[in-house]
Amino acid sequence: MAQIILKNIKKTYDPDVLKKPVLNQLSLSIEAGEFVGIVGPSGSGKTTLLYVMSGLEKVDSGEVLLFNKPLSTYLESDRAMLRRDLIGFVFQFFNLIPNLSIYDNLKLANVIIKNKGLTIEEALNLVGLKDVMHKYPSELSGGMQQRASIGRAILGEKKIIFADEPTGNLDYQTSLDIMGLFKELNQKLGITIVMVTHNEALLSYTNRVIRLLDGKIEKDEKR
Ligand SMILES: Nc1ncnc2c1ncn2[C@@H]1O[C@H](COP(=O)(O)OP(=O)(O)OP(=O)(O)O)[C@@H](O)[C@H]1O
Ligand SMILES: [Mg+2]
């Protein structure tokens, strides 16, 4: 089942019509359970594509369907619920709150979601941080902090994780470790993962690679 469908998306930030759109008549479809890598030069529109897919950014024209329903037909409250309960985000910087323990970081995130799925304890177990959950972010390595932010992203019953250069701040070995974790979550929980990366070596963990160039899909390969 297609979870994300983009139809002829055009997206500009600058209202200047002479400027090239960031996404230019882009169409794609992502199925439930895929692990998609998105690559492309800096400025090719990767982050914008993630924001458009998740409904964080509006498009100029074209249509975005999430879970088989056009985003334009969701009420604003439903769109917020969707982003809160069904979609998780992971970024290059871990965005953990420094004066809260790892457990409390997840607890805070859990307050706002309608948690019917993975509990804080289950999420911490899955990302392998049960033993250090009472430590503060600064007491953990970068890789462990990213594990914590992934734990936070999977709380509840998330269907899709969007990750924007999740290993951009980590050394190579730790990057492989984080990719292994994504792969495990993808396979064990069936969560769809859409990940932007600059590191070609990490693409072997994905099932599909989409290459962006100038706001268009240059290549889309399934493995
Ligand atoms: N909020 C914004 N306002 C105006 N222009 C923007 C905004 N966000 C991105 N852009 C522009 O849109 C283009 C695509 O940006 P985007 O961040 O999507 O690229 P990217 O592929 O993620 O690049 P990088 O690899 O550097 O992260 C760039 O030219 C950028 O300057
Ligand atoms: Mg980017």
TrEMBL record:
Signal peptide: none annotated. Transmembrane segments: none annotated. Residues 4-223 form the ABC transporter domain. The keyword Glycoprotein does not apply. InterPro entries: AAA+_ATPase, ABC_transporter-like_ATP-bd, ABC_transporter-like_CS, MacB-like_ATP-bd, P-loop_NTPase. SUPFAM superfamilies: P-loop containing nucleoside triphosphate hydrolases (SSF52540). PANTHER family: ABC TRANSPORTER ATP-BINDING PROTEIN MG467-RELATED, LIPOPROTEIN-RELEASING SYSTEM ATP-BINDING PROTEIN LOLD. Belongs to the ABC transporter superfamily. This is ABC transporter ATP-binding protein. The lineage of its organism: Bacteria, Bacillati, Mycoplasmatota, Mollicutes, Acholeplasmatales.
